[in-house]
Fold each of these.
Amino acid sequence: MAAAAAGLAYLANTQPTQNNYAASPNGPWKAAWTEDFSGPEGSGINPEIWEFDTGQGVFGTNEIEMMTADRANVHLDGHGDLDLVVRGHGAVGAPGSYWTSGRIQTRSSFTPPPGGQMEVTASVWQPDPAQGLGYWPAFWMLGSDPSAWPADGEIDILEDINGLSEHSGTLHCGNLTQRNPDGTTGPCHEPNGIGSGPLPCPGCQAGFHSYSVVIDRRDENGQQIRWYLDGTEFFSVSESTVGAAAWTAAVDHPFSILLNVAVGGTYPDVTCRCATPTGQTTPGGEMAVRSVAVYMF
């Protein structure tokens, strides 16, 4: 894509492609933004489109990897795919244990149109390590003020943990102060969020699949978020579930898009009831991303 356009493709009256399944077959969907990761093998991401989030232990999820801007962790494969590669060795906390990976975020942000819908979708090949304990690939969206998390909203479109060929979708919202009877906080039951939980994802570690979310603002009294795998809805959350105030704060504003593979952290540890990664966790697993797109209706 032309650098002057910074990867944006405003294509009028365009339906989502076969690889970016339309969540709704009706209406004049328009492509508001697309990224196809074209570029020479081994080259880096387009810095006009993406920025790196780097550091270790700075994201609040207890993950243990160092997120880097190194092309060993984040690069184009020369065939239209972005590869996010996990490197390292050793069990968490063991002497000499060291893990690296990559996390990138769009410089642009995207706002669900009032009275309309926004679909965010990506074609992803999940990591397939021989031993995946601690792997945590993700495709997600974050509000414009991460310091206000979770009130400012987070929408997880794809998360998998521990190399199980599963997937899940989650909404984070509300607050960390209003205590619920189950020990969580706020209307989104943080820090867990309101989610589908891990679901089977056959073939998701053996090929590209489309992971999508639609934010539907057509009914101002009944907005909704819907999650899709290969065009089939598997989860939804309605405004009435969390209340108008929390919903407005979390949903009705711009979102950036993120791609990353974490290693270790609360989600994989709680799910396996173990400490990850282990001494048997396999390095070299990669998440490949063929395309990312935003559609408006």
Note: Helices lie at 239-242, 244-251, 266-272.
Amino acid sequence: MLDLSGQYRKIQQEIEVAIHAVIDSAAFINGTAVTDFAADLSSYTGAGYVIPCANGTDALQISLMALDLKPGDEIILPAFTYVAAAEAVALLGLIPVFVDVDIKTCNIDIQKIQTAITSKTRAIIPVHLFGQSVDMQPLLQMAKTNNLYVVEDTAQSIGAVYTFSDGTKKQCGTMGHIGCLSFFPSKNLGCFGDGGAMLTNDAALAGKLKMIASHGQSVKYRHEMIGCNSRLDTLQAAVLQVKLRYLNEYIAARQKAAYYYTENLQNLNEYLQLPVETSYSTHVYHQYTIQVSNGKRDALKAFLQEKGIPTMIYYPLSMPEQPVFNDMNQPGKAPCNFPQSCLLAQSVLSLPMHTELEEEQLYYIVNQIKTFFS
């Protein structure tokens, strides 16, 4: 599904220099590479403040903690996504309120958000899934009208650019109150372990996020609020600082592979729905996810596996179908109340997508898919 070793070999010397500099300094926690990486990421994304942390899930939890939400407050999020956002909501005693998604983009359906807003709603978590932005302009207007916070889950979409109707362009993660990033190794910008960060343009929020991530302290041994211990270690920051310089190149490589898939699979529209690119967002293709019709997804997956082609199902269950959330959102295991999300769970299949894909490999993958449907 991805070739991290091949990617590493191309920048091995730079990575080794960066890692050895950290080892020589022995500043393994809060070393200069952490602050330097945060500054570089701020410049890249356009975010006023970058607060590194231990991982993307911590970023979501710390962000919600910083908003002074109370147990029982409702948070709106998509029904088709990874569990991290809903998990962070539930861990804080908040109520996840799921909204169905758009079948074409796999992102939260903006039209359905309004009907989910109640007097208890306090925030919306738009998840920019698979590498493309949620339609943020109407979402931000809806949030403003209803006095709601917006916490962007940008784990899969760093570098994706949203264009507003007036032509203004902003990166995913910089449009809401807080943006949350993950640097898990498989992400478009991935480190050699776990890592995350929070983006914001609000100075007061930035200070609060930083405090919470450091045991609730702004000065050592003076704890002003309940926090946690969530740090991006210096070795990971050093790796990320190098890889950030190549992020646009990595995105271009993913886009090139995606365009090859799209050009060569478009004649199979009777069997497949391919990823779409919207008019308002670039797509950085964290995943290239097709939808397989007529219940043939699992058969195609098995066929490709036999041919040596790995695929993944992101995600085999929608959030409301997960046992931990089932009683909350689908009482009595009723028929699916989120038809598009449940349909996606039964039909999505992600093809190999990474920076090192060669045309020979892509040709083989495409032709095996064509063979299956012939």
Note: The mean pLDDT is 96.
Amino acid sequence: METTLRRTLLSAIVAAILIAAVAGPAAAHHSFSAFNTTEQKTVVGTVKKVEWTNPHIWIYIDVPNSQGVAEVYSFEGMSPNYLERRDWTRTTLKVGDKITVTFNPLRDGRNGGMFLNGKLTSGKVLTMGGAQ
């Protein structure tokens, strides 16, 4: 009986270690540390590309700088599954759409960040909580 108890205890310990090893990277995946969540910025541009992929969508827009030269801004969004349940589709944003994007900027200063909301020229407002 003592051997069975030891095997059960050992199995439980190994299972706990495996769960902890997998949970660490999963939790890190959802970190917002790359974004300055205390600051919001807004840019106006034209949709260049939308990557409707897991685990998060990416939206790329061309934003003219002070010299009129387009700079690409990239924005991370929620997962397609999450957005589909909130009335987004693959075609909610199309290449060529004019959009005003409000976002939490990247901490490293690169162009882009975490998409908070966008407003199309039609007046339609898009949020990560759903299309409105």
Note: DSSP finds two helices and seven strands in the chain.
Amino acid sequence: MSAPAPLALADRRIASWIFILAALTYAWFHAGGGWNQNAQFDLTRAIVERHTFAIDGLQTNTGDLSRYGGHWYPNKAPGISLLACVVYWPLHAIETAQGLDPGDPLVLIANHYLCTVCVIALLGALVPALLYRKARRGGVDPLWAAVVAMTIAFATQLFPYSTMLVANAPSASLLFVAFVYATRSRDTGGDAVVAGIAAGLAALTNYLCVPAAAIVGLLMLRRAGRARAAALFIAGALPPLLLLGVYQRITCGGFFRTPMSTMDRRFVDAHAILGIIGRPSVEAAWGITFSAYRGLFYFAPVLLAGAAALVVWLRSRNELPELTAIAAISALLFLFNMSFNGWEGGFGVGGRYLLPLIPLWGLAMLRCRGTMRVAIVALAIPSFAINFAATAVDPQPSGTIPRPLTQYILPLLIDGSFSPDVPITPPWSAATFTGHTSVNRLTYDEAVVFSRQPPGSAAAEWSSFNLGEGFFGAGDVRSLIPIALMLLGGITAILTAASKAAANT
């Protein structure tokens, strides 16, 4: 069902406001360096600066490495790095013309931030805007559509992961774009092509999205003229997939060989499938769901309502193909994460490998009624507080901290320090990772904190930051006041506009 014609303009306007608010909020924060994002940006630099995929000479910036043919490469799918080239290419040309050194630590910070905003924050902000538009096309009232869209944007792990140059948020966004266009009620060739392109880019960005994209592709078979729709979907997906194959042929020695086959042996289990996939583990199942360590529901309790809404939807048996696809993708992601030898995801919060299911569960939340809506709103409040705190302080707590929220994030936000008894890597971090906000000191030209940039240096102090710190100083909790006011004002304005739109329905 399409939204009533008189509301079409209002809906487009509200969706635009949601996108702008999410993009500005994500862009306010920059999470700092880490093995993952350093490896991604090293590949971008190698492509733009040296026209090669090999990151030789930059490999000391990260431990996320693979080696083939005597050269070093990131052990990642290349999508994020390739997308960042679109931003970095003109930046590098301008900076070179001005005589700037691309390896200068402060230049690296600026370039890394701009690439993160243009690639990660903007793609992340697409999710709530697109969720709102799909809700309205499906006849969901504007106010509830706006509430769910902003819940997904700010009260889930989409928020912190949209501030760092890693694949989780953009692959979730691209898969969601593919899903939305694959399930639109109108049957146009353009929808199928867009769905295919987005699915192919999701696979190019995140290997986990390869089977998920295939599941989305199967939705083409429910359309009128399904053979044509499927062909157009494949035509859209093929260029990114061919690019992935060529990249793997150059960097791994085969079109179907991934960097996992040549990566650092520290990350490989000789008895596991592909070196990384074993039997599902009870420890991992608890760890990625409810644990204080990496629990998806611990860091975003509102997703419990999303899971419940998915069950309710399943019992109703409405829109069965769409529901089956969401259930299959969710099962796939959970099964992989429970079987993965690195299920905890290194440094991070809240089950990052499960991020692509969050926008899809938002679709289930849209179908809630009555007390379930009250529960979602109630759970969204602590979920927002947790994810805002993690984003503001450090969304990459050490993998050695058992309870990162209560042992690391909240003590820093409140006191500006955390206990030296907390097990953290490196062990002396408690004395140097101080401040209320943006405490990550790892820069983009080192794999071990302070190995190149000493404590107190500008590069270390500003490796992570929020824009308010430019006015109040690094680590100052007052830097959160402007973004808090912007969020309060923006959410109030959007909900007011949605209420008026609902009144005119």
Note: The longest strand covers residues 65-68.
